[in-house]
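User: My collaborator sent over this chain with a note saying "see what the structure looks like." That's all I know about it. Can you take a look?
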Amino acid sequence: MQLEWSAPEDNTGSHAVSDYVLLYGHPDAAECLYYRKQVTGETTSCTLKENIWPGITYRFAVAAENKAGRGNISDYSESITVTSETGKKNSQLYIIHCVLNVA
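Assistant: Without extra context I'll predict from the sequence alone. Here is the result:
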């Protein structure tokens, strides 16, 4: 599953993003049970290969990190049900519409 998001508007100087944390899980699960994936660097996309199963519905959010710490978690995406095509090469790209704040 390929995911993409937008960087915060203020992404320079002391606000420059060093990493992102992606959170994802079933919409009915407690947030503390959600998976977390660290995305190193300024890249605003990732491919999920672990902890994603066909037929399961997930929602996604992302938080930016910088020298000052982790910003607020974005709003969660709409729910997405994974299909068997998700893990294949050239699978559909999902754009997470998130507004990020940095610390």
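A starting point for your reply to your collaborator: DSSP finds no helices and eight strands in the chain.
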